[in-house]
Structures
1.
Amino acid sequence: MTPILQLRSLGKSFVTGNHTVQALTNITLDVAQGECLAIVGESGSGKSTLANLVLGLITPSTGEILFEGAILPVRRTLPHRQAIQLVQQNPASALNPRRSVGASLRLALDVHGIGTPRERPDLVAQLLTDVGLPAAYASRAPAALSGGQRQRIAIARALACQSRLVVLDEPTSALDVLVQAQVLHLLDRLRRARGLTYLFITHDLGVVRNIATRVAVFSKGRMVELAETGALFTAPGDPYTRRLISAVPVITKEEKIMRNTLGGLQ
Amino acid sequence: MSTLDIRNLHLSFKLHSGLVHVLHGISLSVAKGERVALVGESGSGKSVTARIVLGLLQELRGARITGHVAFQGQDLSALSPRARHALRGTAMSMIFQDPTSSLNPVYRIAPQFREVLARATPGISMEAARARATTLLDEVAITEPARVLDSYPFQLSGGMNQRVMIAMALANRPALLLADEPGTALDVTVQAQTLDLMRDLVAQHGTSVLFISHNLGVVREFADRTCVIYKGRIVESGPTEAVFEAPGHPYTRALMAAQPRITGGGLPEIAEADSRFLASAVIHGGLA
């Protein structure tokens, strides 16, 4: 089966003043349909640049991106934008504060021409139910919702246009730990039910361990390791990955033992 | 005598819509040289507690504070605003979450360092301040203190700025350090180094620390004692080891269960609010 997303020798450099910053160097990566691929790295590793390239917000300096087997054009068409959607880190700033959450969801349906105008109120209600919120929340303003509820709305909006690939950029790092667990559950359930593919960008290895199917570790614009999640945590191949795992603050004895074992391999 | 002793602290804010209760009788103490963590989620009241200790909320109109806060045996509410101001930056100091926004972007590090040192030594000369700052930066493992002192905050990395902040916070050898989510804005490898450094330094100087965080892992590694706060109440407290190994309160248990583990095992789905979270406090070892 053709991978849903293929990155071929992808590179991106930014020119600032008189020097060039190489943000991403020679990334070749296939993302399979239905998987949750975590992109892990510290600040400056290039993970957000990668997200922006996939979303078509910036253009690659070198290489190309294939979506469902076809090269993505520099100027994306509506079907491309419909198929690849984004959920951002901070749901408070991702939603228009002046617009009810129902109107925000309705806008996505209108823009992408999903359903007939008469069906759309029902589709909005269905979207809210899908993300575990009462349909009556459609009339609420984002400010009347908690952080976790707002993130559910942002997820509903990303799914409104029947997207197939969702870029999740630190979707739970602004949330409290109990709410984070709920939102991660929701994301996992939706992926399985709808056959969605996720690019899950995060710096939190605990989250990665529990949600990702595969992990790509980025450092200074290069992909240093790509592995199945279980294998990455039990036998990390790259010294940088080991250093990353051994720096995670942990709470249980089992985690401490695992971390120290990996740290000792350095 | 404890460095910090908080007894039955209540806080409410007077708003147009009425009185909002934020703290419902917090009690905790930090002994000399002890590292105590106050751990809770957003809105639990952990940061306002630190602000009351610093004497910042007392000045805010609309804030109603009752209860007893004693710093080195001295009742803070009995002090004048001027006397409380004199304590800040000398006998007690604070480190904030984001080091880069805590430093003034339009001044180099050296004059900002001098300002800190002048809180304890008024009129300290630039030369004397530089010499002292060099020693202090050396303590936080900064290898080129001269270059750092001549830099603007934006020319330094986040980890470097955080180390500068730690050096400044400990410059006047405070008895109490308040650390509000230090390291949260940093990368995980830098965060680990920063916490190690901070732990060594406070141990060396016998500084007491009130450590505020939402990150259970960080608390587990840093604190001697842990107090879990939920909706303005301390629901569990005790030696860190006891709280983490045998959490007794339903809320603490929920927090621990929801923490994603690097050993895997999935995440349970837990309600974010539960009437059992309001159960009475679990105190390990008898003393709060």
2.
Amino acid sequence: MLDTAPKSSDAVIELSSVELALGSGAARVHILKHVSLAVEAGESVALVGPSGSGKSTLLMTMAGLERVDRGRVSVAGTDLAALDEDGLARFRGRNVGIIFQSFHLIPNMTALENVAVPLELAGERDAFARAAEELGLVGLGHRMEHYPSALSGGEQQRVAIARALVARPAILFADEPTGNLDERTGREIADLLFATCAERGTTLVLVTHDNALAGRCDRMIRIHSGVIDKGPAEADYDDAARSLAR
Amino acid sequence: MTSETAAAAAPALPRAQLALPLPLRFALRELRGGLRGFVVFLACIALGVAAIAAVGSVSRAMTDGLARQGQAILGGDIAFTLVQRQTTPEERAFLEGHGPVSEIAAIRGMARLPDGSDQTLVEIKAVDGAYPLYGALKAADGVDAAAALDAGRALADPELFSRLDLKPGDSIRVGGTELTLAGMIADEPDKLATGLGFGPRLLISRQALETTGIVQPGSLVQYSYRLRLAPGTSDADVASLTETANATFPQAGWQIRSRDDASPGLKRNISQFAQYLTLVGLAALIVGGVGVANAVGAFMEMKRPVIATLRSLGAPGRLVTQLYLIQILLIALIGVVIGLAIGAMVPLLALQFLADVLPVGAETGFYPTALGYAALYGLMTALTFALVPLGRARDIAPTALFRDAAAFGATRPRLAFLALAILSAAALAGLAILLAYDRRIALYFVVGVAGAFLLLRLVAWLVTALARRAPRARSTEWRLAIGNIHRPGALTGSVVLSLGLGLTVLVTIALIDGNLHRQLTQSLPERAPSFFFLDVQNSEAPAFLAFLNEAVPDSTVESVPMLRGRIIALNQTPAAQVTPAPDVAWALKGDRGITFSAEPPKNSRIVEGQWWAADYAGPPLVSMEAGVARGLGVGPGDTVTVNVLGREITATIANLREVAWESLAINFVMVFSPSTFAGAPYSMLATLSYPGGADPAREAALMRDTGKEFPAVTAIRVREALERISTILDQLMLAIRVASSIALAASVLVLAGALAAGHRQRLYDAVILKTLGATRRQLLLAFGLEYGLLGLATAVFAVIAGSLAAWGVVSGVMNQPFTVFPVTAVAAALIAVALTIGLGLAGTWRLLGQKAAPVLRNL
């Protein structure tokens, strides 16, 4: 369960020997170093590690937001290297949902419109009906016509979750999804996230500093200086267990 | 809440939206945030579009007025004009065969007080009983205009009454008769057709003209025969009548004008002037374009997270571009609509004010074509300047959402967008040139604007480079100021570009204005003769010259014979079939003064061919002004056929002369060999110059004495004529100044916008510096110095570039000597420095008073 080796059988995400450096000249930093991993369909995985370790970049790589210098990234059966920028955008629209720490709702769109965007981009005719349904599922059926500025942080993240899930993606990526929320609201959001993913069989990959949140995942991958730590991360699990017990 | 009720409750509005294409749907949603940040954008586009729409609408109102009132302006459906002769009985019979004819005679003359104490030049128009065929002649104060014109009475422009201090009922002497002024002319429908002259109009009957005796053989009298054709006669019928008349009387030498082109000269002048104003308006729009680019750049910067979010949700780059392009165009459209609304209303007001100045009854109306062009200019300017900042949006990566704003970094616009922007700019330039009356000038304008843009970028770069390399100043304030000029995110580029363009336009216009005025009020009066005397009969010429020598013993008097003639053919090709260069087209229109001489005239130089021998008596030869000859495509050896006094004379061009016209000395486009007009009646044209210049009192005295001794001689005071031209110029320059101040207003708007955009950074700087111990005085001084230095650098450029542009126009286009006015330069510099410091500190002042803590918490 804690193994990070690729499991090609049911893997929905597969990275092999991925290298990535960002910046240029003297400022160029080697961020991902020979990273290989696999995530199975329906699995939930936490990427943990200190700031600057490369976990967010790894998440972006898997979501098709960042191109790798070397190695192979295959997500939902698609080799991402073969897609151009717009191809990647379409791929994301179809297969991937993303949740951000800062929610990133579009300020001039209502909650309903924010959620409908992925469906509209995909050309779905029933975009608004489905978006309304999704908002109802995250408990915001009564806030549909509100603009983000009129919503609390927790509500904004619920809208973001609804937006990420409305197109029924196979995979959900979350970057510190509870990072900007208080503890109680964070727990509610996490409950919602895990419950929905479990119900729909959605693969969940999240980046977090919160051990409690990481501990709720099926598996934890620890990154340090762009390299995946080999071996079980018992210490983390002990921490996670302790915080859960609290 | 269940998902079903939620779904049912939600989408009333969104469903309607679904009918719209996706980019438009998203764009409309984005625009809900309002137009904050677009005030300068909107104002710039609205201002430029309003200026162009207003100029277009006013000029269309005037030219439409000309077209609609063609019959009244011309005085008939068709008019035949002859110089120095009346129609022959055959010609008269031909004209009368087509409808009622009205004959009028126009001649310049002197109106004197009966006691001879004062006199003035008048433009005499003698009308018959049929006048006017169209429109109505109206006199002021209820005087019956038609009844007022008999053998002993006249009507006159109010100007004549004020010049000679007369009132209705008083008398004047014209030639050898006394006329009672029955009243003032309130409306003379065909005023334009008889031309705008040097003096006020004196309207008399044909019998009255006979009694004055001023029409002598060789007098410069013009006879015009207007016809009223049967109602319903089409323009084509009028045109075919022109052809028939020319075919029936090929030797007549008359000039024929029809109602659809009643005043081609005025129409041309309006179009030409409208073009200059349109170009100045376009300059304002282009200056505003900088504001558009700044606003769009700032907008795209603000929208980066939204763009990145959309990209992360699967939006392709094309959609992002479309989405923002639509928003920018929608905002531009709002600006255009505001501008059009203002521009469409201006004619209503302008024509009210201009009613007294305009020689034509312009009718206000709605001019969709003029507004359409203005809208097109506005949208294309917005597009041109928005494309580059817009091009940066496409490449905003969603990864930005995972990093700090600082990590966004500067993205280069895609080459395709740069190319599109250049293409759009070229299309804008092409439109300006295509729609221009004089494409050559429009081309100069386009090249000038493009050059100014590049130069201003260069200036900004140079200022930045100089600031970077400047030695470390000892004073903290100077160090801060100079540092602010060159550091990343400095205001240098936007200040120099926004203020530079507007200020350059202002300096150019001010210098052209100054030079023209100097010419008219100083240079010309110094060089030009004081008097022109017209209609000096050949027989009385010796007596007249003797009189002048006696009256002003130390004066320089020159005299030449003068006739009027029309060019009717070049190398046997009828003038109508010759295509002249646009700048000499006037030479083929209407009649010109011509002369003959045994010697080459003064103030001219033979540049091609030979002057004839003093005793030459062979077939007619002619000397032509070189520029006109080249424009007409003729040279020595070619032939010119002129109609003089009803006779056709074909002369061979013997030589070409270059003439120094600006001296205002006597000179003619065509000078014939002496034997050409042997036996023909002619009058003399004489000039008189006072040595060392004249004073008005001496001029008035000479004018009075001339009137007494030689009542038929017309004396034109050059000073008065120049004053008249100067007044007209003042009116034209006022319009140009208004248009150019719109360019400066756009500049100030853009500058204010650019400075406001820098305020966030300023606030940050001010707070950090205050935290570190800087006083408000130090900060104010540092910011003031920075703005002052930028304003000064811009002013230096604007003065140099504006002077060069004005020099090009004055000496290149107008062929006048150019003078730089240092006061204008200093004033421009002061304006620039005051504006930048004023606008810059206006924003910064408030920031300086802010407490540091709250700002620091929010940074």
3.
Amino acid sequence: MQRQQRLRRVGTAHQCVIAAALALCALRSAALAQDEGMLLAPKAFRAAVERILPSVVIIETYGSSATPVAERPAPGPRPGPRPGGRRGGGISKPGEGPTTGLIVSADGLILTSTYNFLRGQPIITVVLRDGSQHVAKLLGRDETRKLCVLKVEGVKDLPVPKTAGPQELKVGQWAISVGYGYGGHEPAISSGIISATRRMSGRAVQTDANLSPANYGGPLIDIEGRVLGICVPLSPQSRETAGGTEWYDSGIGFAVPVHGAEGLIKRMASGETIRPGWLGIRPATESKGEGVTIEEVQPNSPAAGAGLKKGDIIVAINGQAVADTAALADVMNKLAAGDSLTLVYKQGGEEKTATLTLAEPPATPVPPVRPATTRAATSRPVASRPARG
Amino acid sequence: MRPLVSVLFFACAASAVAATTRPATAPARSPFARAIAYAQERSVKIHGAGIALEHGYAAGTIVSADGLILTADGLIINTSNLRVTLPDGRIVGAKVVRRSEPLQSALLKVDVSTPSFFEMPDKSPVTKGDWVLAINNSFKVADGAEPLSVNMGIVSLVADVDAKRKVQDVPYDGDAILIDAITSNPGAPGGAVVTADGTLAGIVGRIMESKATNTRLNYAVPIERLRPFVLGQEMIVGPGTPKGKPFVGIRLFTLGGRKTPAYIDRIAPGSPAADAGLLKDDLVLAINGKAVRDCEDYQELEAALAPGAPATFTIKRKSQITQVKLSIREETAHATPTTAP
């Protein structure tokens, strides 16, 4: 009995040693495989870029009124670390180099960033991968996403790239940016990962691949060469055309997904300019998670026209529950001026439904009704924060 | 039977763990660890002159056993008190051997032996997309004998860049290795940029701003360009034979200013432009492939044309883009474009 137990113990110990050794081997080989994968990644980067290149175009503009994009007053080395990437990291004016665009239809629609047309609407040409140069026209733009659409005439059978949908997007996956901003006929590439799949109310994905004027308008692709988005300068703090460029070299970059954007592209191609939508209310900052209380309704706004009043509680927009101000901002930021929406709200305990069309924000800001008491909510005129509701 | 099953089970479980997660039990490792250690043993910190925006510190790269060190050129080395902190923490004085304006680089020498040094390959060890590790001392965070910092990235592009530090400065000239590791920070220039196996690909270049993008460049000066400089074999380019002024025969429509597109206003009869069939109202888009964005670009590129050589003009006429060859002549007194109708 005793002997048997001892034997079993020995057996168990033996077993453990073997198991441990095998486990170590497995760990080691898995780690080695990981190393190898990492070391082979450049091959995959190059292959992915080769796949997308036929659909990436060089955009040249002629005639520059050289409007400055003032963000940084003087050139020179940075005075110190720029943790947020904001201070001293901006650019004083657009560069002299070409910019980048992506073919989105076989008959010559090109999707690119509005950043590439800061200097007004000059003469535009597009160079295809085969080196041929064509005149292009700017058709329309989406100012909420910093995107615009060009049309190249007299071309057909252009290669439209594959796109990757949101369900295929994972934080941590490889992302590669491609752009012609440095000039020449070979693009610069930068690799990184997807840092967040949803930013700016779902309008953009975030990446740590270097996004800058070298690739604004160009594609951000996955390791298989499928388009994840168009690289654009976006800033949570700024709505200026060049706002967001100050984030270059900060490890924070944004790209607007192309998958499922057919409707948007069609609207821009039809000559539309998409601007942020204006509802005309100021929501209360506090909420119990059961809706957003209206603090103020601006006169002559879509909200006023639909009969909304101070004290009403918005509970849903377009069938999506609006639990708090963040949810409201999220819904509103997906909509633009001209979009219709159905709004469910409570007025004096009674649930009502209103259908209204978002307007463009009024040109001159409406001064706040009450003096500023709290921070952001009243530090700027209410009307200048249209998309927040 | 049972022991074997459980051993298999253990092995499978272990490999599953290893494959799906970064196991907390495994020693921390990186495929780049050896290259980094190798490079850090061959990299130094440099302290010298500094004033205002010229920072008095940089990184350096050891390239010989007898103390030759490559670094970026700059005010920092304009001092008799140039000091180098070796990888083992020793601080020694350094002298400037020579400097290169086009490479914006300098070669220093310390009077101690440096048995650990980088071999200099005579051709580039990197292509676009390759991993690179940039050894640097950004913001002077490495102190004393502490190893220098390492930033990882890939080669974005190898290209001739048009970049300057300040308007009045001599620009960096020729090919640079653009990388996507952030190195345009004080203290980074001069650091070694190595491949995943530790081969020296170049040194972090002096902080420069790209004319094309108006952004700071993260780049390395390629080793195949630095090697002749270190060996004292740099080609001296002579002034060359003076060439005559080129004559094209185009007069631009410049009423809107120099920043307007380069529309042709007049063509001199019998001129190279006339012979090539160019017409009034044609828009010049490019000369020899270089974009002509406005009249200023045109003047610059036209002045650089060589008389006697052909030049390719890219022209937009209505919505048609064509390329035409011009035989550029030398300007003579009577061959200038006429203003007479």
4.
Amino acid sequence: MAPLRLDLSLPLRSFDLELALEVGRETVALVGPSGAGKTSVLRAVAGLARPSRGTISCGDVWFDSARGVDRRPEQRSVGFVFQEYALFPHLSVQQNVTFGAGRSDGLLRRLRIEHLAGARPGELSGGERQRVALARALAREPRVLLLDEPMAALDPHTRGSVRGELHDLLRELGLPALLVTHDFEDAAALADRVGVLVEGRLRQLAPPAELLGSPADPFVAEFAGANVLSGLAEAGPDGLTRLRLEDGRAVYSTDAAHGRASLVVYPWDVSLARETPDDSALNHLPGEIVSLVPVGNRVRVRLPFLTAEITAASAERLGLRAGESVVASFKATQARLLVGAD
Amino acid sequence: MRPLFAVVLAAATAIALAFLLLPVVAIFVRVPPGDLVGALGHDVTRDALLVSIKTSAIAHAAVLLVGTPAAYLLARRRFRGRGAVLTLIELPLVLPPAVAGIALFAAFGRMGLLGDELNAFGVQIPFTQAAVVLAVAFVESPFYFRGAIAAFEAVDGSLIDAARTLGAGPARVFARVALPLAAGGLAAASALALARGLGEFGATIIFAGNLQGVTQTMPLAIYAQFEQDFDTALAISALFIVVGALLLVTLKLYGWLRLGSIFRSRFAASTSS
């Protein structure tokens, strides 16, 4: 199976997108804020947008500005799952799937939509629509699968299970797949490698665990869901680094740094208590709870300066309410320091 | 204040409705249904009806055949001067029909812009049925263009993109995605244009004349009979109202049926699952 190779420059409204990427038999997710040019990358690969220069190939050359090659979308081999799925509303599920190719039986069975073959897209749930869109994209046996925000049109409670199914399908297919999302959790759950795209530039491309463990810059860390505290780093006691925050408080990290720096700590590494605990953690920051948001069996507790993620059971045991004072704690070993702030 | 305002609104609505309906009702009060059928037997009425049907059918077919692909192009492509083209297409809408008739003369008349070329082929257009067809097509086409461009613009661009990534070339995308999805809007635009074409008077009488059995369409027959036989003029007018009402009802019914089928399929889906 040929890898998808692209190296291109694409003029967008307020900046030029520059991207070089090779996708083998894996799923690569491009994440970033909206307007970062993520969808434009997919459109360029599909032939729906024209780069100003560069090359795109997957087995054959699809685009090469130097040699004047620019294959039309219908002459490339991409399976495109559009945002909101773009199913043909006037055709049945079966007709949608066979629009580009003659057969559909195996695919309908594989995606468990056989019983919907005669239905119109307007009658389907979000999860069913996604499966029809996938079946339609795969019907022509494309060389590469492109997915634009495949989870965005789903309601929160079906999201988890649909994500699991999509993950398994992508693994089974073994196709080069390029996925675009603004949600880091979706990207981390679905992709082998995640690229953070900001204003048309790839800030970091790495497996999800590596992005979380050693983010290249504060923006990547924040996008990955981390708390980012900025301040001035200096040598502290016991070989630790002390970071003086703008409000005068200090936090400690085992990482070395000096000067302007950002401290990165993930919400799930932050614990909460009513009183400052006498434990091994070096960092204790008191504050009032701004909000409590349940996420499945966890609760995201937002304080003015950082967010903690604790189990729903713990939140209940502590009897947490918005407006109450708590102490947030995290260990110096869990605090990463990145030199240079936003 | 509120009750007074409510009364003002109700009164305005009543006046508007009465003003629009009174003349229509008056025609049917003056023409008993039996006379209406009888008037259809008159030579003048029958000839005018045949001329109208023939010329309108040809003109309308031409407008649909040329206008549909042109509207698709104008709706989907963005190019320099597109705004100017769209404005030019709508020009006949704001022209008095008499001006349209003179303009057609200036273009296709014996002394007109294309006069020499047409003479060379021995083709003479003014005062023939071809002139009626041209006049009707000229005045009705902007109505179709406007509606058809809007209908194609309303088709979600991502559906077009999806069809292309599924291997469909431009012609297949047009036939299988754009055309079926724009069908409702195209039908509405087509009906509106057809009604305008059937009612065309000014450009026809100037460019094609008023010759019974040749260029005398129904509106021209009404004008001709107005002075000779007022009852026949009334009967033809009544026929027009019936045809117009049928066109309107068909359009509304079509929209209503489409909505109905969507609701029914939703309902079926929710009860079967």
